[in-house]
Structures are given as structure tokens and as C-alpha cells.
Design brief:
Blueprint: H1 3-25, H2 45-48, E1 51-60, E2 66-79, E3 82-91, E4 96-105, E5 110-114, E6 122-127, E7 130-138, E8 147-156, E9 162-170, E10 173-184
Amino acid sequence: MSDPIIFFMLGVGAVFMVLILLRRFAGFASQRETDYAGGAPQFDLKEHLNGKMICEGVIFGPLGGMTSSFVADFDARWINNVGTIKEVFTYNDGSVQERAWTITLGDRGHFTATADDVPGVAQGHEAGPVVLFRYPIRMPESAGGYVLNAFDCMYLTSNGTIVNRSQFRKFGIKVAELVATIRKEDQS
């Protein structure tokens, strides 16, 4: 091999390694519960995801453009350390999607969750003002039926509103991102 080809290949390899390191140590998915431990206000799933709630958000495609928006009604109920969150999403194209999560609280802020479109068991953790949640999710057949890896972060604000940011990846490549707010339904 000639020197220019070797230098080119070394350069490509170096760029690839820098991208991997950035994603692991500086990107959105690099967040860990230790980053938020002790922060305020304290996120408590049983308190802050309880009762009737409204969720409003947008979904961005892999290149960053908005692909969809939605409004959802949530109804969350808890019995001891097991909660059920029923979600009904209405998208800007008029389609409706329903999901029900069953969340089981564990020790030291850890929890697990299941839903019909989640193969296996989701794993999460409450830490200070944040809930970090990782799970596989199966897309509807109309969207190809692919299983994506989701990283869901919910950030509690001082007025009780939750800001939710989620990224969805396939083979480590971001294919979608969701940004939403979740708030208690107005009781007046």
C-alpha cells in the first residue's frame, strides 16, 4: 500500500474512534444516574406520574426535521409499588396509538417496566430531578415493525412539569428523537 492510502485509512479510523468516544462520554446517551444524584427537585414516579396528565410533543427524524407531532392523554394509577400508565396518543395525521405501561419500583430508585410494544423488560432509574429509562421498542408494522433501542430521559421542573427527551437508535445510529412535556391535567 502507498503512504497516502495508509494515512487516509488511519485518518478515517481516528475520526471513527473520536465519534465513538463522543457518543459514549459526551452525547445525550452518555447520561448516567450519578450525573443527577442529589439534584433537586426530587423526581418521584409515584407522585409525579400519577393521575390524569397531558403530554404534548414532536418527533424528529434522523436528519433533525420534524416528522410528526402529537397530544396524548395519560392516566397513571399506583397500587403500592406497581403503577399502570395508560397512554392514548393522537398524532397530527389523525392516527391514534394506545399503550399501557406497567412499572414496578425496586430498591434505590431502580424500576422495571413492561408494555405490549416493548420486547423484554425496560430498565430505569430515578436520580434527583431525572428519570433515565432504557428499553427496546417495536415500531408498528406500518412503520416497518423494526425494534429500536430507546433512551428516555424525563426531567422534572420546579413547577411539576416533566420535560421528556427520547432518542431511538438502530445499530447505534439515531433514527428518531422525541421531545415532549408532561403535565397534570388542569383540575379547574
